[in-house]
């Protein structure tokens, strides 16, 4: 579906889409408050996550159903099936649930702050597992991005009571899970067809989330799942936000270097703030301007590191081309053949 699109472009598109997701969810939730059913908002968080992912599974299967052949399924090894299931539990069930509990337990700004441990952790895991060469500028840029997000949170007036508690721990665990999932996917599932990977992971994650949420909150928590108003908006949210964003992200991760993935992930907070400003009209505070400036500085440093890497690769390719040309000339001189 994204065959000719560069991996970096896909990553940036998905980050922008996911950045806008929170603002779009806010708008949809407001619509739900305007259409209450017996005093209940049918577009609750659990209903949104379950119905949105269910719609995404349907749309994803419609897009990739040709990949779901008996031959492709039979070609998957036992270890690939195992990690498909593990990633479904981690990235599509456990991590979103941890973020939900974190948001319920602490300030959203605290959750945003703690979740930014993901980019430097991803760089570290890429160096540890894949032996990727991570330049010092990429690493420093990621740390600066983390400092920028920390300033956005800490300079808010209400963050005087910033204490690492249960919510912050859950947010940190979720960020760790997302970083580990990215590495596991590149390590064990690089040969799995994207359609099978996306559909299976979303379907299993949705089912397990429903089971866990029903156990924790009771099955009546999903009593409004039959609402046509809910499903109408979930088709929009699940089809546009989840499907296109997830497809672009999965394809981009497979095509890109770990430094590109880390850079795109670092931009996620900026994308969210810009989306809130453009879509919801939220005004930026002094903390946003200061922390955002630092964050953009870190992103600029990461971009510089990527540019330097591309220059080195280009020089290496030119050097190899010249060496090949010299080798051809030497061979021609030895044979004495000058062509016709």
What does this structure look like?
The chain has 340 residues and is mostly helical. The protein has one domain (7-335). It has helices spanning 7-33, 45-64, 70-75, 78-105, 108-115, 118-129, 136-154, 166-188, 194-217, 228-255, 258-266, 268-280, 286-335. It is globular and about 70 Å long. The N and C termini lie far apart (47 Å).
Concise summary:
With 340 residues, the protein is mainly alpha-helical.
Question: Helix and strand layout, with pairings?
Answer:
Elements: H1 7-33, H2 45-64, H3 70-75, H4 78-105, H5 108-115, H6 118-129, H7 136-154, H8 166-188, H9 194-217, H10 228-255, H11 258-266, H12 268-280, H13 286-335
Helix pairs in contact: 1-10, 1-11, 1-12, 2-9, 2-10, 4-8, 4-9, 5-7, 5-8, 6-8, 6-11, 7-11, 7-13, 11-13
Backbone shape: globular
Percentage of residues assigned to helices = over 70%
Strand percentage lies at under 5%
Number of helices: 13
| N-end to C-end Cα span | 47 Å
Helix and strand content put the structural class at mainly alpha
Keywords:
single chain; 340 residues; mainly alpha; 13 helices; 0% strand; disordered C terminus
């Amino acid at each position: 579906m994204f065959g000719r699109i560069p991996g970096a472009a896909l990553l940036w598109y998905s980050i922008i889409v996911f950045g806008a997701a929170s603002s779009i969810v806010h708008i949809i939730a407001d619509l739900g408050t305007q259409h209450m059913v017996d005093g209940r908002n049918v577009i609750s968080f659990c209903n949104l996550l379950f119905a949105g992912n269910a719609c995404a599974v349907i749309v994803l299967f419609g897009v990739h159903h040709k990949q779901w052949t008996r031959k492709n399924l039979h070609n998957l090894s036992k270890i690939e099936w195992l990690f498909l299931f593990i990633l479904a539990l981690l990235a599509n069930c456990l991590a979103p649930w941890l973020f939900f509990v974190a948001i319920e337990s602490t300030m959203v700004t605290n959750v945003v702050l703690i979740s930014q441990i993901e980019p430097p952790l991803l760089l570290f895991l890429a160096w540890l597992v894949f032996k990727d060469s991570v330049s010092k500028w990429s690493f420093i840029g990621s740390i600066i991005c983390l400092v920028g997000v920390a300033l956005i949170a800490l300079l808010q007036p209400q963050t005087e009571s910033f204490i690492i508690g249960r919510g912050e721990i859950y947010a940190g665990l979720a960020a760790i899970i997302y970083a580990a999932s990215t590495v596991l996917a590149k390590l064990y599932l690089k040969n799995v067809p994207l359609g099978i990977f996306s559909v299976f992971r979303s379907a299993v994650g949705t089912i397990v989330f429903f089971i866990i949420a029903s156990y924790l909150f009771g099955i009546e928590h999903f009593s409004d799942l039959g609402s046509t108003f809910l499903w109408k908006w979930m088709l929009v949210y699940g089809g546009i936000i989840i499907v296109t964003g997830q497809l672009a992200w999965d394809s981009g991760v497979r095509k890109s270097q770990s430094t590109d993935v880390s850079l795109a992930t670092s931009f996620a907070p900026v994308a969210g703030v810009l989306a809130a400003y453009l879509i919801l009209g939220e005004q930026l505070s002094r903390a946003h301007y200061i922390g955002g400036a630092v964050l953009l500085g870190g992103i600029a440093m990461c971009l510089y590191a990527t540019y330097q890497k591309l220059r080195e690769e280009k020089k290496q390719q030119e050097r190899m081309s010249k060496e090949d040309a010299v080798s051809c000339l030497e061979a021609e001189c030895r044979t004495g053949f000058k062509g016709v």
